Amino acid sequence: MRLWLYRLSEDQTANMNTFAESVAEKYRLLVSWLNYLQSPFLLFLRVYFFWQLFQTGQGKLSNIGKISEFFASLGIPLPTLNAYFIGSLECFGGLLLIAGLASRPLALLIVISMIVAYLTADLEAVTKLFSIPPHPHQFFKATPFPFLLAALIILAFGPGKISIDAAIAKWFDQKRGSRSSQRESRDTSD
């Protein structure tokens, strides 16, 4: 009788292993398919959000006097210089992020500028986020949030394979590969 119970549990173990392996294989297949969507998603994110940021920066640069006055009212030092800097960062940085060039450094600068925007112009949204009980809806509805989130995603994951950064990295890898193969051929000929 004990032998039968032992044999049954061995069969059950074998069936569980087979089931687990089947689920793991299907999961790996799903992940490999979803990985193909990563770069198109990052491209969509870059175009959608950073086009809006480009337009925002363009508006700031075309109304520099009003933006400078607004920055001065917030207590930002050197308001005219900072208005030109932020307007240029949003305008030209937005275009470069759409193209995927210098993506991570620009994303870092945009993250910093959006944090400063929160702390100067939307401080109440930040304090409500960390209040007890928290009220995050005001933080998420604030103007800097979509740009902050998009810049954080690009900072963390990079611009994806559909970008100038990826093309430059691929070019450098090919150059490095051709140099190492040349070195190997020289080493074998000696």
Query: Which class best fits the helix and strand makeup?
Result: mainly alpha
Task: Using the CA coordinates, give the radius of gyration.
Answer: 26 Å
| Strand proportion | under 5%
Helix content: over 70%
Task: Please report the distance between the alpha carbons of the first and last residues.
Answer: 73 Å
On the 0 to 100 scale, the average pLDDT is 89
- What's the total number of strands? 0
With helices defined by DSSP (H or I, 4 residues minimum), what is the helix count?
A: 9
Largest sheet: none
> Which spans of ≥5 residues are poorly predicted at pLDDT below 50?
none
Describe this structure in words.
This protein has 190 residues and is mainly alpha-helical. It is 84% helix and 0% strand. The protein has a domain at 41-165.
